[in-house]
Specification:
Elements lengths: L1 H15 L9 H9 L2 H4 L2 H32 L1 H5 L13 H4 L4 H25 L5 H15 L13 H21 L4 H24 L1 H7 L4 H4 L2 H20 L1 H4 L5 H4 L1 H16 L3 H24 L1
């Protein structure tokens, strides 16, 4: 019985850390393919990138654990993961499911946050390059990650959408800067496109969770705007991504960059139709996750070729 309980608790911690949502972690893969060929197998670069990736896993684990704790305490997660909603799986929220206690979640967040900080410090210390702008990006990213739903509660103050994208941008720009000491237009465009991926499934989650978020005062665009205003906001974000892709060659990408990312453009149209044409927001969210992964594959192919 004790062993069964221990296994169940470990599984609950894995779910708390959202380790199955790997979409931000793909940024390191994009970075590795962006590197000059001579650096891709460089020992120092690989060690630094590995430390950064491990740190990223722990920092994000701390971020989402604190987000779950805040969502449980204010009741938004309980409302959004109601037992009568078959599309939201309560077991993904250990506090709502009752598989972990608040004390366990808070302790997990503190430990993973500390480990993540130490790993990022180690990445900076061992990096071939550590320009001030890169160190600043890492420091700011760490600070606001742990403040996402805790402390200043960025996600409750109207900054959630910006942070979801900015986190993706930072997780490409920072490790690339540690490896090379510089950035160019191609790197910036790919970082921006990568960061918009998690945002363009996050806004659909917010659309679904609008009732619970309004009740607890979580100031997302979906909660603040009318349904039409929220739809226009999502369409605008989709258009920004399309402009970045189509205009990429003008900013430093290869000329065939828009062709390589044509699947992304087409799938975004489908995502919008599913959400606002058919009214299936959660299906559109799931499609958004898949679109992001298709985009990552396209970026990797572009960089390797």
């Amino acid at each position: 019985m004790q062993r069964t309980t221990s296994v169940a608790t470990r599984r609950a911690y894995v779910r708390l850390a959202k380790l199955d949502i790997v979409d931000y972690y793909f940024g390191v893969l994009v970075v590795w393919t962006l590197l000059p060929t001579a650096l891709r197998l460089d020992g120092g670069v690989l060690a630094t990138t590995g430390l950064f990736l491990l740190g990223e896993v722990f920092v994000i684990a701390a971020m989402v654990a604190l987000d779950d704790l805040t969502g449980f305490r204010d009741g938004s997660d309980i409302a959004n993961y109601a037992p009568d909603d078959p599309n939201r799986r309560r077991y993904r929220k250990p506090l709502v499911a009752g598989t972990l206690t608040e004390a366990q979640v808070l302790r997990f967040a503190w430990i993973t946050g500390l480990i993540g900080a130490l790993l990022w410090i180690a990445a900076i210390a061992t990096a071939p390059h550590a320009p001030l702008w890169t160190v600043a990006v890492i420091g700011v990213t760490y600070f606001f990650a742990v403040q996402y739903s805790w402390g200043v509660k960025l996600s409750y103050r109207g900054f959630q959408e910006f942070f979801l994208a900015a986190l993706g941008w930072a997780l490409v720009l920072a490790p690339y800067g540690l490896a090379t000491g510089s950035i160019d237009g191609n790197v910036v465009v790919q970082a921006l496109v990568f960061g918009l991926g998690p945002l363009l499934f996050g806004v659909y989650s917010n659309t679904n969770d609008v009732k619970g978020d309004r009740e607890v005062g979580r100031l997302t665009v979906a909660a603040l705007a009318t349904p039409r205003g929220n739809m226009l906001f999502i369409l605008a974000l989709t258009a920004v991504e399309a402009v970045l892709i189509v205009g990429g060659p003008l900013l430093g990408t290869v000329w065939w960059f828009p062709i390589a990312l044509l699947p992304t453009l087409l799938l975004r149209v489908r995502q919008v139709r599913v959400a606002f044409g058919k009214g299936d927001i959660l299906r559109a969210r799931l499609l958004g996750i898949r679109v992001h992964r298709v985009t990552v594959v396209a970026l990797v192919v572009v960089n390797l070729l």
